[in-house]
Amino acid sequence: MIASNVLAIALAAAGAAAAPLAKRSSGQATYYAAGLGACGWTNSGSDFIVAMNAPEWAGGAHCGQTVTITNNKNGNTQTAQVADLCPGCSWGSLDMSTSLFSALNNGNMDDGVFPISWSFGSGSSASNNNKQQQQQQQQAQATSSTYTPEATYTKSSTPSATPTPSSVTYSQPAAPTSTSSYAPQPASSSNSKTVVSTPEWWADVNNACGVKLDAGSLPIAISSSALLAADKLSDACGKWIQIKNNQNGKELSLQVVNYWAGAEGDVALGEAYKRLANNYENPETIESVTWGFIDGQGL
């Protein structure tokens, strides 16, 4: 009997040791004014919730799930629920309710941003999760809401300073033979293969690829580069790209919706150009960006 118990304990320990570790993402924490979110329920600043970046949002598949977040600067850890979408957040980054941001950053809201790592799941339910309210609101709403970004993102004006977005004529790619609802979720944000180029600013980066995009996607058009030859550009339709403004360090995750015969490594941006620039209303010229395909997409 003792031997059996010892064996059982040993097997249990071995099984626990073999259990896979939860996948962790890394990025930046920012905060926003919580309200009616893309998951379809309303929260306040006192609720511990996050708006998730578009690549990991996966079409809202993670709505209501718990995430465990660690502030990499001070080690503080909190749990929260996915309640909203952040189209402007780069891979791994989360936009937080004010109370969650404060709890993770020792009450210091002046930082505005801090580095985080996080994973799905928790040993306990998220603080201030408001589940009952969420269920009631979901039943009352026949359709899901559209994400309302922060004030910085809601400005709609025609920039008066140079550069101005150009209306371009280009050869429209042939429609793909099949489309997917959403781009496959990449396995990681890291990619050693990148290209440095000066982005073009187009008034309309239209979805010539014909892919069905996530509501939170920001579009990008690409030309051939060291990453993908001209005859393979159609393979990039719907794929995720990580792009960084080399002057101010701002990063975004974008989806490929178009391609054209531009100069080697050229990319064209619409809304993303303004978000990467320092001044949203009157963006300055972006001298150079570094971009590459997020790994795990079969490219």
TrEMBL record:
Sorted keywords for this record are:
Signal
* Signal peptide per UniProt: 1-18
Region Disordered, annotated ranges: 124-193
Q: Where is the composition biased (Low complexity)?
A: 124-142, 151-171
| Polar residues bias spans | 172-193
Say if the entry is tagged with keyword Transferase: no
| InterPro entries referenced in this protein's UniProt entry, alphabetically | Expansin_CellWall, RlpA-like_sf
Q: What's the protein here called?
A: Uncharacterized protein
Could you tell me which species this protein originates from? Pseudozyma antarctica (Yeast)
